Prior knowledge:
Elements: H1 5-23, H2 27-47, H3 52-60, E1 69-78, E2 81-86, E3 93-94, E4 97-99, H4 106-118, E5 120-132, E6 147-159, E7 170-174, H5 188-199, E8 206-207
Parallel strand pairs: 1-6, 5-8
Antiparallel strand pairs: 1-2, 1-4, 2-3, 2-7, 5-6
Amino acid sequence: MNTPEWLKIARELHSMSQVGLEHAQNGYETERYERLKEIAASIIVKQSLLSEETVLESFAMQPGYITPKVDVRAAIIREGKILLVQEANDGRWSLPGGWADVGDMPSEAIIREVREESGFDARVLRVVGVYDANRIPNEEMMPFYHAYKLLFLCEILSGEARPSHETPDVRFFALDDLPPLSFYRTNRGMIADAFAKIANLSKMTVFD
């Protein structure tokens, strides 16, 4: 997917505003960089389904120099089916996972996410792929987040399927019978990559 020119411009303006606000020396500079942030938000609002309030709230959560966020996801395949969790906020399904926290090792983050979202204790076997999440075409996505997705092939050690407040349902699905996916979290390509990896553990890691 080619990133739309308007999105490239909005991201660049947002990044410039954040760095500028971090180093502003006086009220005039602060005012100018705040205005730059408002322009970036306006571009996103006009080209997406998001409100200005939503965009500016998200901007406020990303102070200082902007770097990509890291999303970790687990691919757990058992008896030819893959583990998916239902997302409470949109009712669709995804691989267990979420944002890595500061101080986490990626492999620790995904084990915690699997336990919290599905009820299973697991261990990491391989890295399936490293993806640029902003190449996923979906107008519902928060487009100002630049994120990398790390997909780990994992196996269950113990536990049983247990829903959570964030994931009201936990099930295994065959590749040819997937439910509606929460697309900016998980897409069919990622799931297909996981099935290819489990079929051949020596297969090279996929990356963008």
